[in-house]
Design goal:
590 residues; alpha/beta; seven-stranded mixed β-sheet; 24% helix; 22% strand; ligase; ATP-binding
């Protein structure tokens, strides 16, 4: 579905709509009857449609993973109400103990839950299947479909050939099943060093698809696994583990991104070989590919994201400039906006670029209807109301949301000294400037309405020794207070916001922008580090209206005129709020 095929609207809970081509595939499979009344290997009834989300716990999930999460869980939710039902399994493909960590595993599960999805009792780990995987490897060895290769890694790579040259058979390819089984068991028992032997499938060293040239499926790694400890010193590779895990979990539709398209023949070879040997039964899982998310001003390579963290170009995996789910969450994006974004961009088999503004607009549409309003002054300039008594105050109020009066009002006071935005005053106004400026010649100073307060007229200003404006002076009209009958007598073009200096809450505000200044920082021969935006984070001292004093972490607001902001997940404390700008009220990167 293209992003233009649905109207711009807020979405407060719907899962992403599956793409049409996947719907057609699943509808066809259901109509064929092959997926009706499915049972597992134990003969127990299982849903007709089972998808899965199977990340490797070697890093933090990013916005590209969110697309896959929404697709797989969305398909399951969509077909769950049909005959036979559906579900989505959650699986951690933890086959490489060298790169994986409990921290990553925990963060993955937390991210999926935060996005609003639940796998129920169907949480699995590839490491759950290590015993079965080993058993199936022995079956393949015994049937002449796998062999132990004793070449070095460099020789194996060299002898695979290339796209224009066939590979060469390993000198160990014709070992007998008995010899292979003996060596494989000795590998398992720790009798060899890392890299001394590997297990390869016996397919075809002249196959036009290099992936099929006797791929390695087991290697020796004398490394403890974060779940299985020191039980194993041989570990299955991803291509072997992934398809078998799908089959063991009775996955019907294995949906992945296009970079795995070339590996689909190997996926099919493994599951079909084991089916022929009586391990699995029809229907076995089948792999389907869709285009990964390419988002402008963003990179989603785990290796490069790790480089950003390790070289301290960012402040961690949850830096609000990072495209990780923990990062965009801390930035202030909502799970509803991510799901809405995924719904709008749809899924196709053709690679394309999605502009970052599409993601930002999904957030605006989500928060517009449910973010309370508040006043913040980000560039404070003192405003003194000369004809208002210094000890007096006038109660004022404003709605928490203009469309929901039932949400009530924010209460604050008008006092002699106020904070306004520095941009709301000009010594020499340009054409079309309707905010504050001083008297010019015989002309009086400008008049503006202080929102929810009084109309004021500028009488002058003060500067420091460097000529910087430090204070603006005005007089107010006592009968002009907003909401009173007299206010209708004043017609002004300018309307600015303000905060009482006596009540203002000092706060740290972090203004975030794109991490990269280039919309395609990682394309071609570019070094993505050269495209880092030096202005991607600015920290300023600002003021908030009094109701914001007790803002809690992850509370979201629209700061009127400025955009949408969130109380920082880690640094916001009672009485000491810290806010991050999530997105402006309109796209500034046209």
């Amino acid at each position: 579905m293209s992003q233009d095929s649905k109207p711009s609207k807020a979405n407060t809970g719907a899962v992403a709509e599956p793409s049409n081509f996947l719907r057609q595939i699943i509808d066809h499979d259901l109509a064929s009857g092959a997926f009706s009344q499915r049972t597992n290997l134990a003969g127990e009834s299982i849903p007709s449609i089972i998808t899965r989300f199977p990340p490797e716990p070697n890093g933090y999930l990013h916005i590209g993973h969110a697309k896959s999460i929404c697709l797989n869980f969305g398909l399951a939710a969509d077909y769950n109400n049909q005959v036979g039902g559906a579900r989505c399994n959650m699986r951690l493909d933890d086959t490489n103990p060298v790169k994986e960590d409990v921290e990553y595993a925990d963060s993955i599960l937390d991210a999926v839950k935060w996005l609003g999805f639940d796998w129920g009792t169907h949480l699995y780990h590839a490491s759950d299947y290590f015993d079965r995987l080993y058993e199936f490897a022995e079956i393949l060895i015994q049937n002449g479909k796998a062999y132990v290769d004793s070449q070095s890694a460099d020789d194996i790579h060299t002898n695979r050939g290339n796209f224009g040259q066939a590979g060469k058979n390993s000198p160990y390819r014709d070992r007998s099943p008995e010899e292979n089984l003996k060596l494989f068991r000795e590998m398992r028992d720790g009798k060899f060093k890392d890299g001394e032997h590997v297990l390869r499938l016996k397919i075809d060293m002249a196959h036009p698809n290099i992936v099929m040239r006797d791929p390695v499926v087991y290697r020796i790694r004398h490394t403890d696994h974060h779940r299985t400890g020191s039980k194993w010193c041989i570990y299955p590779l991803y291509d072997f583990t992934h398809c078998i895990s799908d089959a063991l979990e009775n996955v019907s539709h294995s949906i992945c991104t296009l970079e795995f398209e070339n590996n689909r023949p190997l996926y099919d070879w493994i599951v079909n070989s084991l089916k022929e040997l009586g391990v699995f039964k029809d229907p076995v899982p089948h792999q389907y590919e869709f285009a990964r998310l390419n988002l402008t001003y963003t990179i989603t390579s785990k290796r490069k994201l790790l480089q950003l963290v390790e070289e301290k170009h960012v402040e961690g995996w949850d830096d609000p400039r990072m495209p990780t789910i923990v990062g965009i969450r801390r930035r202030g994006y909502t799970p509803e906006s991510i799901r809405l974004f995924c719904e709008r961009i749809g899924v196709s088999k053709a690679d394309s670029w999605i502009d970052m503004s599409t993601l930002d607009q999904a957030l605006r549409d989500d928060l517009e209807v449910r973010a309370p309003r508040a006043t913040a002054v980000l560039k404070p300039l003192k405003l003194v109301v000369e004809n208002f008594d210094a000890s007096a105050k006038e109660a004022c109020s404003a709605p928490r949301h203009p469309n929901y009066p039932e949400w009530g009002n924010r209460e604050f006071n008008f006092t002699r000294e106020l904070w306004i935005e520095a941009d709301d005053f000009m010594q020499e106004p340009i054409k079309g400037f309707f905010r504050l400026y001083p008297p010019i010649g015989d002309q009086p100073g400008s008049r503006v309405r202080l929102r929810h307060g009084f109309v004021v007229e500028c009488t002058g200003f003060e500067t420091d020794a460097q000529g910087n404006v430090t204070q603006v002076n005005v007089t107010h009209f006592p009968d002009s207070k907003s909401g009173t009958p007299g206010s209708n007598n004043y017609k002004v073009k300018g309307n600015i916001h303000w905060i009482s200096a006596a009540e203002a809450i000092p706060t740290e505000v972090r203004l975030y922008d794109h991490l990269f200044s280039d919309p395609h920082p990682d394309s071609g021969d570019k070094n993505f580090l050269d495209a880092i935006n030096s202005n991607s984070k600015q920290t300023i001292a600002a003021y908030l209206e009094p109701c914001m004093k007790d803002a809690k972490p992850e509370d979201r607001f629209q700061f009127e005129r400025h955009g949408y902001f969130v109380a920082d997940q880690k640094d916001c404390q009672p009485g000491k709020p810290v806010f991050n700008r999530t997105v402006g009220l309109k796209d500034s990167w046209k």
